Amino acid sequence: MGAIAKIILQRLGLGLLTLLIVSIVIFTAVNMLPGDFAQLILGQGATPEAIASIREDLGLDRSPIVRYFEWLGGAVRGDLGSSFAQANFASFAGADTGSGLSSVAGQIAPRFANTMFLAGVTACIAVPLAVGLGILAALYRNSIFDRIANIFTLSSISSPEFFLAYILILFLAVLNPILPSLSNIYDGMAFSERLEKTLLPALTLTLVVTAHMMRMTRAAIINLLASPYIEMARLKGLSPMRVIVKHALPNALAPIINVIALNLAFLVTGVVVVEVVFVYPGIGQLFVDSVKIRDIPVVQACCLIFAAVYILLNLTADILSIISNPRLRHPK
115-281: which CATH topology? Predict the structure, then answer.
């Protein structure tokens, strides 16, 4: 158990170091975006004095190094700063800009919850489907079923997400009005209605991520079918399905867990296009809207959350694959 704890601590340390480096890249890249928020708000006829005044109010006139460390320190404390757009709106409306109206965390929290709901629905569909297809493809390898499954999954993963989304909208919302084409989610919505409006973007993401998991499951199982213990199980008279599920699958879990975790990370960080197509009120949609208006604090916070989730799920996959494989736990 001490060896596992040491491995976990090492991975967490590497993850924190990676996140620190990524935060520097995020801050640098976001602040290099073309355009200026003050100029955008005031318009083309703005005077240099008015632009300088707004930049001073927002802290944009300070050194980038000072602003980075202030942002990083706030992020460590859970304070992601204040939205430029909301703070500007609040000041025009006479509201208190220090209230939750302009808080970046306050804007992101409900959007992130919506994205996690979409990712959860997709995972509940995609993971069992992919693992099941992978097991069946390994069981009936080189058969018609195996070829059809490979062609279908490769076709889906080779198609752009927006193309798959529009195809599903055409067939499931326009020609056959089974599901709504727009995912207008709001607080207080019943779970069944929320699930119905989330199903179409979830099916789109399912088509995107199923291929990786299905092919890795198939390859990992087939790679073990020539092992001596599998031959022994066959000689005992066990059915092919039982041999795969009971003997091959448990020993193939490490690569399968890795690819599942990577695809779950994609479900959180790669939903931007799908959320924009379906107007889904998630963090991806918020990210795109914030880039349009150069709302730097919101863009930085969204990028940092994407990076943190991706790193965390990668670390989780790494740790689970080590725990599930004794040879990785004890390399000597």
Answer: MetI-like fold (1.10.3720)
